[in-house]
Design goal:
By secondary structure, this protein is mainly α. It has helices at about 10-25, 40-45, 55-65, 75-85, 90-105, 105-110, 135-140. It has seven helices and no strands. It is globular and about 55 Å long.
Length: about 150
């Protein structure tokens, strides 16, 4: 394989992807948060698709067949929300790709009061949670199969 990078999205697929991202995560002017269809976030999504490109292309093709770009915003939002409510792998992949790119954006991290950097090597301090919430799980009988003796 000479070219491991997937072929880029064509113009229509990019436009559909951009509209979908804007519906998934709209801007929040009060918190100074960009929408996911911001050009920098959109490009990050597209550039990092990698092995997820096939799943994303399936969803974009479905939206293309629905005439997603030509729908009024209310109908486009309804179609997008119906799609996003599905539990199939392609939709889960889309959500993971978009959320990852969104929170990699420095503006988003700053809006949430976080330093826009990789978590390592410095790490991030997290407040300790309430570990007693796990008590009910700890008390359950083991449900996995023990293959150590086999």
């Amino acid at each position: 394989m000479d070219n491991l990078k997937p072929e880029p999205l064509n113009a229509e697929a990019r436009a559909i992807f951009r509209r979908l991202l804007g519906i998934m995560i709209p801007a929040d002017p009060e918190m100074a948060l960009p929408s996911a269809d911001d050009p920098l976030i959109l490009e990050d999504c597209i550039e990092t698709l990698g092995r997820d490109a096939a799943a994303i292309r399936i969803l974009l093709a479905e939206l293309m067949r629905l005439g997603f770009l030509d729908l009024p915003i209310e109908q486009a939002e309804a179609k997008a929300m119906a799609l996003l409510s599905e539990t199939r792998a392609e939709v889960q992949t889309l959500s993971r790709v978009v959320v990852a790119a969104y929170y990699r954006d420095g503006r988003v991290m700053q809006a949430y009061g976080r330093e826009p950097r990789a978590p390592f090597p410095k790490g991030h301090a997290l407040p300790q949670g309430d570990w007693t919430l796990l008590d009910s799980v700890k008390q359950k009988k083991a449900f996995w199969r023990d293959d150590r003796g086999a």
